Structures are given as C-alpha cells and as structure tokens.
C-alpha cells in the first residue's frame, strides 16, 4: 500500500526538476505507480484530476502528481509555502496515516475546478478547494477550511450533506449573476428590504452549523447576533464560480471582530436560492503568512 511518502517524494522531485529547468512529466517515487503517461493524464477531465489529487493526500498515490505543472504552481493557502516544495513540506508535517479525504461535490467552470470536501487534515475539517488549470495542468490553488462541528445544525443538517450533482447547466451564467447580486445586495451592502425577493417564500435549506432552515430562521439568527453586538459584513467579492444550479462565491469581510475569508456555496432552484453551505476561515496576520500570494489574488 502506498503512503503519503510517495506523494511527498514525487512533489519534491517535480520541484527540483522545475528549479533546474528540466521539463518532465514523470515523477520519482517508491515504485512505478509514480510514473504517469502524459496521454493518460490529458485524457481525464480537470474535475477528475482535482478530485484525484485531493484523494492522494490520503492514499499517497503518485499518479496525480503529474496533474500539477512543475514549473508553475501558485499557492494561496497561507499555511503553506509557495510552489510544489511548500505543498510537500505541508504533507510531511502530517502525522503518519492520519489524513482522510472524501470529496462530496466537484464542479467545473472554465479553467477552474472547485470542490467541497470532508477532511481529516490536522484534525476533522470541511473545506472548499479551487484549482486553476492551464493546458490541462494545475497551476494555482486556493482553499478555505473550517473545523467540523461535533453536532448537526439546529435543523439536523451537516456542513456537507445534501444534493451533490449539478443540473441546469445551460443556466450557469444566469445563476451566477443571481447569486452574485444576492451577496452584493444583502451581505455587502445590507439591503435587507431585497432579501425576500431572492427566495421562494420561506423555503430555504441551511447547512451553516449555527443557523436553522427557512428564511425566517436566517433572519432570526441574524437578529439575535445583532442583539449581542455581533455583525456580519462582507467587504469584497473576489470570485464567483458556477456549474449549473451550484454557485460558489469567494469573499472577505468581518464576522464579529474576526476578519475572514468566506466561501459560500448556493444551490439555485427555479430562479431562487434554495440551499446554502459555507466555510468561514479567519485570515491570519500577514507576518504569519508562509507565502506572499495572499488568500485571494484571482
């Protein structure tokens, strides 16, 4: 059985090759599983490549290493150094056989793939990952991670359950426009008088750990937070990605006194917002960053 060591060795080999200027699509490892034929690599969809690379964190499989461009890999996880070497060092720090990866949703929008994953990665977490591809290879990565709550939310939902397959792909751009306008109106500019217009009555399924279902449940929770002096304010929308009826919005702003990255995934049904998942991660002080690329930089 392969281990994470295989993946780390392959990443380091690719990083060395990139620094020396030797272009290669082969990777070194403990056995032949770390060598991938380029025709096989290019035959897979970008979505498949992203999911397989994430799963390799658990299995140590060497083949997905070839999905990363060894000469260009920009890292936006601020806890990892830039490039392939930084990714390898992060994996080396994992306790042996501790990583678990279960990707529940994967979507593709142009050169971007975005995934929704249940992790055990330095502890149980829920995460969104975004990969940017050029010529079939991963050249850039963003993510947002949040500790997995021990209990379901007030309506019994977890951060990861619910529908996972997109529909209405012909309406992708229409749905992206709707969701972006919702975030801009309500979360950025606080135009609460427009809130009801984005929903089908009180019908709304919520996966945030603290908020119950229904639009009225959202309103009640926000009202209770306001009474406690806790505000939720988005400052900037950085990216909107979508596939059919699923739309991911990447933003930054304040939740109480904390400055955060917000990744919000919405499911649209008949032109209205029907379901919501999110991951909120505090943005560390700049002096603690392990790379200079920033959390966003789309």
UniProtKB/TrEMBL annotation:
Q: Where is the composition biased (Polar residues)?
A: 146-156
Pfam name, any one: SnoaL_2
Q: Which UniProt keywords apply?
A: Signal
Q: Which parts of this chain are annotated as the region Disordered?
A: 146-173
Q: Where is the signal peptide?
A: 1-17
Domain SnoaL-like intervals: 179-276
> Does this entry carry the keyword Cytoplasm?
no
- Please give the name of this protein: Predicted SnoaL-like aldol condensation-catalyzing enzyme
